[in-house]
Amino acid sequence: MCTLGLVAVAGLALYATRNPCIPQGIHPVEDFELQRYLGKWYEVARIDHSFEKGLQRTQAEYSLLPNGRIQVVNRGYDPKRGEWKISFGKAMPTIRPDVAALKVSFFGPFYGGYNVVALDDKYRWAMVIGDKLDYFWILSRTPTLPDGVQERLLHHAQQLGVDLTKVLWVHQDGVNPTGSYL
């Protein structure tokens, strides 16, 4: 019995630390420069999930830690509670540092996929798909996308198989409820 328990614990540990799958047909950006990707991003669109449900003015900030991992700080405003929700996580590349395929964890040793599939050459906007097509985000360095980008990204997402009827446009005006800038 003890051996079976050890095998189960070892299996769980291997599962928890594995690299998440990249959905079929999804190709993370190559020639990715992590240093340019670091910093603050506004979430302008997403497919809603329980961990973000109802949040507005959502943002993500990425910074490099001394050990080479990436610190992730996600925040969003919950208008029903009148407060900010903040989550801290970690990320790391899964293939090579120059490929925009990462794994991200907010819940202990369990990781989810984070694949940048479209990225502006000046790193002003990005489109991200997780380890399933229903984990989807459009990010921007500003609270709104430049003209024409929304349509291009949605067309690309549709070609990849993302269900556009599930995409939610995030209330993102760059000003918090107290009127001060973020």
From TrEMBL:
Localization per record: Cell outer membrane
Keyword Lipoprotein annotated: yes
Membrane topology of this protein: Lipid-anchor
PROSITE patterns listed in its UniProt record: LIPOCALIN
SUPFAM superfamilies the record matches: Lipocalins
Domain of life according to the entry: Bacteria
GO MF, one annotated term: lipid binding
Pfam families, alphabetized: Lipocalin_2
Lipocalin/cytosolic fatty-acid binding domain boundaries: 33-172
Keyword Metal-binding recorded: no
Any one annotated GO CC term: cell outer membrane
Chief location of this protein within or outside the cell: membrane
Gene3D superfamilies the record matches: 2.40.128.20
Single GO biological process annotation from the record: response to stress
Keyword terms, alphabetized: Cell outer membrane, Lipid-binding, Lipoprotein, Membrane, Palmitate, Signal
Function: Involved in the storage or transport of lipids necessary for membrane maintenance under stressful conditions. Displays a binding preference for lysophospholipids.
Quaternary state and interactors: Homodimer.
Entries under PANTHER family matching the protein: APOLIPOPROTEIN D (PTHR10612:SF34)
Record-stated family: Belongs to the calycin superfamily. Lipocalin family.
Designated name of the protein: Outer membrane lipoprotein Blc
